[in-house]
Design brief:
The complex is a heterodimer.
Chain A (H helix, E strand, L loop, with lengths): L8 E5 L4 E6 L9 E6 L6 E6 L2 E4 L4 E4 L5 E6 L8 E7 L17 E6 L1
Parallel strand pairs in A: 1-9
Antiparallel strand pairs in A: 2-7, 3-4, 3-8, 5-6, 6-7, 8-9
Chain B lengths: L3 E4 L2 E4 L5 E7 L5 E8 L3 E10 L2 E4 L7 E2 L9 E3 L8 E8 L9 E2 L3 E5 L1
Classes of the chains: A mainly beta, B mainly beta.
């Protein structure tokens, strides 16, 4: 299983850049890295996904080094509404007949202060 | 609008009284899964389904049942609920996992078993 390790929490201030690193030492060749955002009492929401190098969309960037054993989610110029829990997810590379498990790590609680 | 719909949003029941939480998606997704979320434990997968009539256990399947008779529906069944199943439950769906496609989550069902 490609388990993930993230910091439990991070504090930041409005307008700053927030970088969250996720370790996934056992990532498999075919696995993508996906990040989700979760607000209280809501389901997680897809933010960004990547396989290698750098991916950028309208809300975040994802940096993946060549060895792919870690990844960093970058949130530019955060606002109060970015306060949430962020999950890094790497799929289980073992694809069994009935499919594969997906194991979420504990997530990183980001608090953005005014 | 593409969405995953769970019902009910809130449910209070008593020990031993069978209940079903429904989940429906309108995106023609093959993959569906159920998670429970508890403080300090993150998201843990209960069951998943790769397609109609194909289901498998996740990390915490004890005390739960599922069925996948139609592609759009994936109900979660608690035959004899117990207080330790008090939790926030999320249903999710995606395209086939082999494509590493992002998960789409419902808004959750908060279950209390007394």
């Amino acid at each position: 299983l490609a388990k993930t390790t993230q910091p439990i929490s991070m504090d930041s201030y409005e307008g700053q850049e927030v970088n969250i690193t996720c370790s996934h030492n056992n990532i498999a060749t075919n696995d993508y890295i996906t990040w989700y955002q979760q607000f209280p009492s809501q389901g997680p929401r897809f933010i960004i996904q990547g396989y290698k190098t750098k991916v950028t969309n309208e809300v975040a960037s994802l940096f993946i080094p060549a060895d792919r054993k870690s990844s960093t989610l970058s949130l530019p110029r955060v606002s109060l509404s970015d306060t949430a829990v962020y999950y890094c997810l790497v799929g289980d590379a073992e694809i069994k007949a009935a499919g594969n498990k997906l194991t979420f790590g504990g997530g990183t609680r980001v608090l953005v202060k005014p | 609008e593409a969405q995953v719909t769970q019902n009910p949003r809130y449910l209070i029941t008593v020990t031993g009284k069978k209940l079903t939480v429904t989940c429906s998606q309108n995106m023609n997704h093959e993959y569906m899964s159920w998670y429970r979320q508890d403080p300090g434990l993150g998201l843990r997968q209960i069951y998943y389904s790769m397609n109609v009539e194909v289901t498998d256990k996740g990390d915490v399947p004890e005390g739960y049942k599922v069925s996948r008779k139609e592609k759009r529906n994936f109900p979660l069944i608690l035959e004899s609920p117990s207080p330790n199943q008090t939790s926030l439950y999320f249903c999710a769906s995606s395209l086939p996992r082999t494509r590493n496609s992002p998960l789409h989550f419902g808004n959750g069902t908060r279950l209390t078993v007394t």
